[in-house]
């Protein structure tokens, strides 16, 4: 206690902030954030480096250390092709100079706690997107300080990607021993990080019994993997799925989960393309050499991803949803208005895909789509909006099962800055896929775009909604427009745009016919 000599007022000085804590492997020291009220722990290892003989092995517990580990710098990110500034998304998100290395299994923690042994803040566990081929947990748009201001602790992670995270091969399956499986190493990394957080987060002022798992795009798909897996047990209290609720038949076939058999067949072809005859030779290659194999990368011949291995992934996540095999917890899900054209097909492919995927609904759908030229596909895809169909299917099934609520949103802010060079294809326009991330984390000040008051107000509201949901499973709070959950009688969604308002407008017929088609497949 102290007294102000001028006023005579007695006050209690705040306790100094403790920036050192203990985890299973040893002691760690964080640093002050941009606001010294909060502490950031960067680059904490949650597993051993997956290098040498551990390449294409499930993650192993990290080794211990003596003394206090300095956690003032972010760890390496997983090897990936990257996004130069003159390539799509490069200018938007990937200009932080992150270092790629196979030694990449690190996580970051932003905590509002002053005395980490006493507090129990709710935890937001974030999984980055990037098609399981790119991205990292400390991209410029990701930062935990605004969540800290709202009383939430943020964790972001790196995990193995591409060939390092999702290669399956008969030889690797034989190495696995009793289970006899391979692939999904990136998902096992995510599981290992979640388990690490569950065991250690109390030492950062977090509540291990109040963890919300969240992600966007491939990160959202990863959240679906975790909430439909028995291996996550009761570690997940609630979930946020941004632009990633998948429904089979409504997305490119190469994005569907593969069977282990088919994934191993692809792995055999990939080994041949690498000029190798066994896994030992592939382990001797550098990560640069592996990344340069012809056909690697999203959309290439070797588009690697989630595998139904019968253990972590017992069935595709969309099948699990149709069967009701997912966690009975609250969900906050949604999409951006302008991302529907992310995966455009030529007219003949568009029609063939519809007939292959939509069964007896295909002809009705094609009549509503009214596609005559390749240019018409853009309009039809926008009207269809497969991502939004997936979200509404999930919400409808959830209500039929009388589960905890689903809060549905649509992000519809056309980001400023497209008039800088309207003909430049590297400048993403409208409410494109991933555009909401600047607002979710309230980091619009970091974006190159000329953000204005509308953007800052929208970001403030979205970060508050998300924080409230993490705290108690309900996004509503003081000063925010009321957000009602989606019900089958009142199909409400929050329209996050220049004006924030709850809407219940009717779904276009072309979209509804696909929703009805998928709902008919539900097993309950």
Topology summary:
Blueprint: E1 2-3, E2 10-11, E3 20-23, E4 26-29, E5 31-32, E6 39-45, E7 68-70, H1 90-93, E8 106-111, E9 121-127, H2 145-149, E10 153-157, H3 162-166, H4 170-175, H5 185-200, E11 206-216, H6 218-227, E12 238-242, E13 258-259, H7 260-273, H8 279-284, H9 287-291, E14 307-308, H10 317-323, E15 331-336, H11 347-357, H12 362-369, H13 374-384, H14 386-400, E16 406-411, H15 437-440, H16 453-472, E17 493-496, E18 500-503, H17 509-519
Parallel strand pairs: 4-7, 9-10, 9-11, 11-12, 12-15, 13-14, 15-16, 16-17
Antiparallel strand pairs: 1-2, 3-4, 5-6, 6-8, 8-10, 17-18
Helix pairs in contact: 11-12, 12-17, 14-17
Explain the overall architecture.
- It is a single chain.
- The chain is an alpha/beta fold and 524 residues long.
- The chain starts with a strand and ends in a 5-residue tail after the last helix.
- The longest helix has 20 residues, at 453-472.
- The protein has helices spanning 90-93, 145-149, 162-166, 170-175, 185-200, 218-227, 260-273, 279-284, 287-291, 317-323, 347-357, 362-369, 374-384, 386-400, 437-440, 453-472, 509-519; strands at 2-3, 10-11, 20-23, 26-29, 31-32, 39-45, 68-70, 106-111, 121-127, 153-157, 206-216, 238-242, 258-259, 307-308, 331-336, 406-411, 493-496, 500-503.
- The radius of gyration is 23 Å and the shape is globular.
- The model has no long low-confidence stretch (mean pLDDT 91).
- Helix 11 packs antiparallel against helix 12, helix 12 packs antiparallel against helix 17 (509-519) and helix 14 packs across helix 17 (509-519).
């Amino acid at each position: 206690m102290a007294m102000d000599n001028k006023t005579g007022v007695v006050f209690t000085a705040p306790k100094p902030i403790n920036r050192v804590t203990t985890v299973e492997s040893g002691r760690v020291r964080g640093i002050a954030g941009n606001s010294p009220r909060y502490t950031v722990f960067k680059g904490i290892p949650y597993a051993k480096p997956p290098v040498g003989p551990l390449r294409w092995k499930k993650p192993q517990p990290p080794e211990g250390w003596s003394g206090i580990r300095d956690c003032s710098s972010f760890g390496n990110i997983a090897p990936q092709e990257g996004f130069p500034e003159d390539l799509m998304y490069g200018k938007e998100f990937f200009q932080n100079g992150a270092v790629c290395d196979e030694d990449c299994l690190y996580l970051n923690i932003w905590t509002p706690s002053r005395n980490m042994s006493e507090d129990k803040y709710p935890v937001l566990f974030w999984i980055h997107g990037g098609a399981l081929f790119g991205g990292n947990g400390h991209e410029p748009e990701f930062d935990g300080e605004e969540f800290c201001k709202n009383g939430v602790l943020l964790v972001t992670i790196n995990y193995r990607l591409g060939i390092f995270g999702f290669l399956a091969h008969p030889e690797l399956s034989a190495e696995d021993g009793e289970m006899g499986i391979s692939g999904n190493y990136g998902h096992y990394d995510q599981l290992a990080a979640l388990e690490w957080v569950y065991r250690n987060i109390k030492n950062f002022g977090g509540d291990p019994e109040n963890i919300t798992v969240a992600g966007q795009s491939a990160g959202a798909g990863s959240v679906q993997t975790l909430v439909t897996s028995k291996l996550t047990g009761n570690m997940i209290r609630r979930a946020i799925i941004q632009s990633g609720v998948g429904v089979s038949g409504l997305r490119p076939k190469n994005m569907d989960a593969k069977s282990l058999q088919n994934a191993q067949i692809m792995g055999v072809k990939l080994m041949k393309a690498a000029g190798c005859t066994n896994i030992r030779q592939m382990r001797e290659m550098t990560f640069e050499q592996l990344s340069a194999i012809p056909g690697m990368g999203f959309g290439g011949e070797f588009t690697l991803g989630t595998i139904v291995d019968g253990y972590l992934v017992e069935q595709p996540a969309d099948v699990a949803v149709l069967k009701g095999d997912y966690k009975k917890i609250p969900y906050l899900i949604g999409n951006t208005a302008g991302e529907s054209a992310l995966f455009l097909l030529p007219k003949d492919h568009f029609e063939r895909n519809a007939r292959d995927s939509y069964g007896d609904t295909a002809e009705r759908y094609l009549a509503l789509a009214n596609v005559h030229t390749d240019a018409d596909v853009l309009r039809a895809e926008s009207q269809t909006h497969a991502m939004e169909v997936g979200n509404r299917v999930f919400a409808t099934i959830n209500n039929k099962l009388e589960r905890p609520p689903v809060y549905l949103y649509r992000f519809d802010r056309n980001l400023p800055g497209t008039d800088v060079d309207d003909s430049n294809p590297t400048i993403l326009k409208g409410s494109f896929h991933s555009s909401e991330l600047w607002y979710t984390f309230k980091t619009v000040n970091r974006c190159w775009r000329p953000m204005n008051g509308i953007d800052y107000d929208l970001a403030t509201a979205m970060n508050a909604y998300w924080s409230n949901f993490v705290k108690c499973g309900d996004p509503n709070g003081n000063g925010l427009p009321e957000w009602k959950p989606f019900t089958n009688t009142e199909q409400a969604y929050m329209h996050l745009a220049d004006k924030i308002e709850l809407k219940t407008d009717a779904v276009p017929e072309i979209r509804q016919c696909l929703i009805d088609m998928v709902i008919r497949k539900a097993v309950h």
